[in-house]
Amino acid sequence: MRAVAENRLRIIKGGLSIFRKRGAHFTMDDLAKEISMSKKTIYMVFSDKEELLLAMVDFVFDEIEKEEEKALKDEGLSTVERFRRILGAMPSTYIGFDFSGIIGNDSRYPNVLKRMNERLETGWERTFSVLKQGIEEGVFRPVDFTVFKLIYSAALERFLNSKELKANGIKYMDAFSSLVELLIDGLSVR
Predict the structure, then answer these.
(1) How far apart are CA 82 and CA 17, in angstroms?
(2) What is the 3-state secondary structure (H, E, C) of the chain?
(3) Cα separation, 73 vs 68, whole angstroms
(4) Whole-number Å distance between alpha carbons of 94 and 130
(5) pTM greater than 0.85 (yes/no)
(6) Which residues, in sequence order, are CB contacts of 2 under 8 Å at separation 6+?
(7) What is the pLDDT along the chain (190 residues), one digit of tens a residue?
């Protein structure tokens, strides 16, 4: 059982690594070479590429949630800095990773797009608790939480599903950082 879990993690991390190099159009042969594992072993863990992509999405979002949790527990952060860290939560392993290519507008993986959108729509409790705290402290102006969530998630979905960033020479992480700065500056009381 432990070997299966270790292989699963190794395959997911390998998938993310090969994705970084080759984009979403990597093959299972590419992955097998990347991680020095037989395709047979890969297929014993993941039945197909879509199942692997779904696991990759969940893995990245789970890692982001861990970063958010760290920010929430860090007593040395001001409310504004905590909020900035939660909104911009990205494990250091994935800084520089172009998430916009994970599926893009590729209709071959509609379930992966659906999963990404589901993950973007859930887990807002931490964000809202810090936003509420900032409003109560007077460092953020009052804002409708639903509107805030829609703006943030719509921007991220647009970044993930559009070719505009790449066409304009903008890296995903630069756009992501700009979004966080715009939102924080828009909330801050002057």
Answers:
(1) 29
(2) CHHHHHHHHHHHHHHHHHHHHHHHHCCHHHHHHHHCCCHHHHHHHCCCHHHHHHHHHHHHHHHHHHHHHHHHHCCCCCHHHHHHHHHCCCCHHHCCCCHHHCCCCCCCCHHHHHHHHHHHHCCCHHHHHHHHHHHHHCCECCCCHHHHHHHHHHHHHHHHHCCHHHHCCCCHHHHHHHHHHHHHHHHECC
(3) 9
(4) 24
(5) no
(6) none
(7) 788 889 999 999 999 989 888 877 889 999 999 999 999 999 999 999 999 999 998 998 899 899 999 999 999 999 999 999 998 887 666 655 556 555 555 567 888 888 888 888 888 999 999 999 999 999 999 999 999 998 988 887 777 767 788 888 888 778 888 888 888 887 777 6
Task: Name the phi and psi angles at 140, rounded to 5.
Answer: -120, 145
For the record, the structure tokens of 92 come out as: 């250091």
Tracing tokens 């630069």 back to the chain, one arrives at: 174
The answer to whether the beta carbons of residues 39 and 14 sit under 8 Å apart is: no
Length of the chain: 190
* CA torsion, ordered 104, 106, 110, 111, to nearest 10 deg: -60
The strand pairing partners of 188, in sequence order, are 140
Tokens coding 151: 């703006």
Residue 188 dihedral angles phi and psi, to the nearest 5°:
-65, 140
Q: Are 183 and 87 a contacting pair, CB within 8 Å?
A: yes
